[in-house]
Structure formats: structure tokens, C-alpha cells
């Protein structure tokens, strides 16, 4: 056998022996107490369910090691909380685990005539158990079943709110469908007529611009159906100017 061939054979054998020795060691280390999680930090969640979610994730995380973090198991531990959209993990060797939650943001409260309310995200995901305080109201005949809204007028109203700038959405009392299509009422302000569900971002941008302009004060409605040409209507006529008497 040529010297080069013998050398290559020895290298291959050496690597094989090394893998045979290290593989069991790596498997042992993945579950070893030397790298067992002892500290779990949870970020990215607020609201009435936050404490329960943190407790569930901490309990699940403490059963892992920093060499073997199972994100599917962590998600399974909080599967009963639909506000958790996804999560990611970071390890701090040897004993630290940081969990960052990507949570759904409630944009509306689906309210029945009986007063029952369910929070919902902008894509129609029902966030049962999440707070509905200070959320715009979308009226429904009955509390929806399942985990998401089906297609229909209710989903259209929710998507309208999901497209709204957060600061402006906080000023909305209610969204409904009327003779002019989708409409919203502003707290202490005018009604906003959106018409159809197209160009929602542009329509909200037009609404923000009109509401910020002093000439729209006193308007009873803002027609945004053509966002390039929004119209503020229902303005009270200004009192006629009369020259002062000498």
C-alpha cells in the first residue's frame, strides 16, 4: 500500500474512533445535570393570562437542559392560551434559559347583545381569556366558536381594526357595517366611512390626516371611500361676520 493511502486510512480510522467515543458523550451531556436549566426568564407577554403563561413555561423549561431546549414542548405547555402566537428561546450556558413570546395583539372585542365579550386579533384569531378592556367593539349575534373567525362581515370589521394605526385605533369606540359599508365611530369625534375592505392602510392614513387638521373640527363624518380625496362632512356653518357698531 502506498504511503499516501496508508496515511489516509489512518486518518479515516482515527476520525471514526473519535466519533464513536464522542457521540455517547454528546448524548450524555445533552441530558446532564451539568447543563440543566436552573433559571428561566419569560418576556413578551402581558395581560390577565401573563402570570399563568409564565408559570407554565418556567415549569416546562426547568425540565430541560441548555443543550436540549425543546421549543415544541414549550409551545405545548401554553397551548391553552391562544394569545401566544409563537416563541423563541435563547440559552445562557450553563444554566440559563430565556423565552421570548410573540403574542397576538387584541384589536377588538366581539360583543353579543347579552354583553359577553371575546378579544380577537387582527387576523381573526379568537383570544379567549384575554382582556377586552378599552378595545373597540364589534357587535355579533352570538359568541363565535372555534379558534378563528370564519369569512364574513365580522372578520371584515376586525381586519379593518387590525390595519389601523395603534394610536388611532385606541380612539375607536365601535366598528360596524352600514349603508356606506364599513364604518367606525371615533370617541368624541366623527364617524369614519370606509366603504369596502380595499386600501385600508391608505384609508386610515387619510383618516389620521383629516382628524389632525383643524378644519375638520366639528365634522359629523369623514368619508374615506376614496382615500385620495377624503371628505369631512356635517360641519356646522361658521357664524356670519358682522362689522362692529361704532
Structure, explained:
With 246 residues, the chain is α/β, with parallel strands linked by helices. The protein folds into two domains: 68 residues, Ubiquitin-like (UB roll) (Roll), CATH 3.10.20; 128 residues, 3-Layer(aba) Sandwich (Rossmann fold), CATH 3.40.50. The radius of gyration is 29 Å and the shape is elongated.
The CATH topology label of the largest domain is Rossmann fold
Terminal-residue CA separation: 125 Å
Shape: elongated
- Protein structure class: alpha/beta
**Stretches where pLDDT falls below 50 for ≥5 residues?**
240-246
| Highest-level CATH class of the largest domain | Alpha Beta
* Number of domain units: 2
Strand order of the largest sheet: 6-5-4-7-8-9-10-11-12
CATH architecture of the largest domain: 3-Layer(aba) Sandwich
Amino acid at each position: 500500500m502506498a504511503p499516501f493511502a496508508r496515511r489516509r486510512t489512518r486518518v479515516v480510522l482515527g476520525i471514526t474512533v473519535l466519533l464513536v467515543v464522542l457521540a455517547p458523550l454528546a448524548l450524555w451531556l445533552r441530558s446532564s445535570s451539568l447543563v440543566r436549566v436552573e433559571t428561566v426568564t419569560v418576556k413578551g407577554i402581558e395581560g390577565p393570562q401573563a402570570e399563568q403563561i409564565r408559570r407554565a413555561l418556567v415549569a416546562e423549561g426547568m425540565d430541560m437542559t441548555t443543550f436540549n431546549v425543546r421549543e415544541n414542548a414549550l409551545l405545548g405547555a401554553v397551548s391553552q392560551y391562544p394569545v401566544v402566537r409563537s416563541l423563541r428561546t435563547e440559552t445562557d450556558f450553563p444554566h440559563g434559559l430565556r423565552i421570548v413570546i410573540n403574542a397576538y395583539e387584541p384589536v377588538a372585542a366581539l360583543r353579543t347583545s347579552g354583553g359577553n365579550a371575546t378579544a380577537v386579533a387582527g387576523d381573526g384569531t379568537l383570544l379567549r381569556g384575554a382582556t377586552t378592556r378599552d378595545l373597540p367593539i364589534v357587535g355579533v349575534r352570538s359568541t363565535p366558536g372555534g379558534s378563528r373567525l370564519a369569512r364574513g362581515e365580522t372578520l371584515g370589521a376586525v381586519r379593518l381594526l387590525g390595519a389601523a394605526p395603534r394610536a388611532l385605533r385606541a380612539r375607536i369606540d365601535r366598528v360596524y357595517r352600514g349603508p356606506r359599508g364599513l364604518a367606525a365611530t371615533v370617541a368624541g369625534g366623527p364617524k369614519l366611512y370606509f366603504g369596502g375592505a380595499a386600501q385600508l392602510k391608505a384609508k386610515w392614513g387619510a383618516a389620521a390626516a383629516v382628524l389632525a387638521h383643524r378644519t375638520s373640527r366639528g365634522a359629523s363624518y369623514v368619508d374615506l371611500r376614496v382615500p385620495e380625496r377624503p371628505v369631512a362632512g356635517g360641519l356646522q356653518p361658521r357664524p356670519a361676520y358682522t362689522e362692529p357698531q361704532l
